Amino acid sequence: MGFKKKQMLGFGLILFFLAILLSFMMFTLNNLKSSMTEIVENRYDKVQASMEIRQLFSRSDREILFAANDANKEERAESLEIINENHSLIESKIAGLSGSLNKAKAKQLLKEFETQYASYSITEAELIQKIKSGNSSDNLSSLMDDQREKRKKVISTMDEFKDYQEGVMKDTLSNSKQTYEDMIGFVIFAVILSILVISVTVVWMIRSTSKDLQSITKVIKNIDFKNLSVIPRIPVRTTDEIGDIAKSFNDMAESLEIYNQKEKDFTEKISEQNWIQTRVADIATMYQRIVDVEVLADRFITRLAPMMGASIGAFYVKRGEGVDMRFVKLASFAGDGEDSGRREFRFGEGLIGQCALEKKSKVIEDIPEDFQLVTTGLGEVNPKSIVIAPVIFEDEVVAMVELASLEAFTKLQKTFLNQVLDTLGITINNVEGRMEIERLLKESQAQTEELQAQSEELQSQSEEMQAQSEELQTQAEELRMINEQLEERNRETEEKSKELQVAKLNLEKQAEELKLSSKYKSEFMANMSHELRTPLNSILILSEMLSDPNDSKLNEEQQEFARVINSSGQDLLTLINDILDLSKVEVGKLEVVFDEMNLSELPELLHRNFDHVAKKKNIDFIIEKSKNVPDIFFTDEQRFQQILKNLLSNAFKFTEKGSVSVQIKKADEENVAQWIQTKGASNWVEIKVTDTGIGISKEKQKLIFEAFQQGDGATMRKYGGTGLGLSICREFAKLLGGWVIVDSEEGQGSTFTFFIPSMPEGFKNVDEAIAASPEVAAANHDDSAAPFGEQGESDAGMMDEEDQDKAKPFCNKTVLVVDDDHRNIFALKNALKHEGMEILTAENGFECLELLEKGNNIDVILMDIMMPGMDGYETMTRIREQSKFEDLPIIALTAKAMKGDREKCLKAGASDYVSKPLKLDQLLSVLRVWLTN
Question: Are the beta carbons of 217 and 245 closer than 8 angstroms?
Answer without folding.
Answer: no
